Amino acid sequence: xxxxxxxxxxxxxxxxxxxxxxxxxxxxxxxxxxxxxxxxxxxxxxxxxxxxxxxxxxxxxxxxxxxxxxxxxxxxxxxxxxxxxxxxxxxxxxxxxxxxxxxxxxxxxxxxxxxxxxxxxxxxxxxxxxxx
Length: 132
Fold this sequence. Notes:
Number of helices: 3
CATH class: Alpha Beta
Order of helices and strands: EHHEEHEE
Number of strands: 5
Distance between the termini: 23 Å
CATH architecture: 2-Layer Sandwich
Shape: globular
Helix content: 25-40%
CATH topology: Heat Shock Protein 90
Number of domains: 1
């Protein structure tokens, strides 16, 4: 599949994981991703793990549905994709310092080289790419 950028996603699938919509999903996703990343440099690894945690948390909190996580690599990129059943796209917010939540997409937009949303028949896929 081709994204709006005209580039194909990386083609080596490192992880394809189905997740329940519960409080354990972000931790399960993070742990599975850490194991799948292999020899990825630690700085990139930590960024990927944070992005995975934020995207899966968003799926649990906002979609309240099961989700799926895919991690792909290739062409000098690592890509994270989280699919859920919600139709609404994520929003990058700038919450006040007193608000304890609402910074996930702000962090992702700051850390990822690119991110976006692809709408599907069943909901959406939010993706983020890093170029190590």
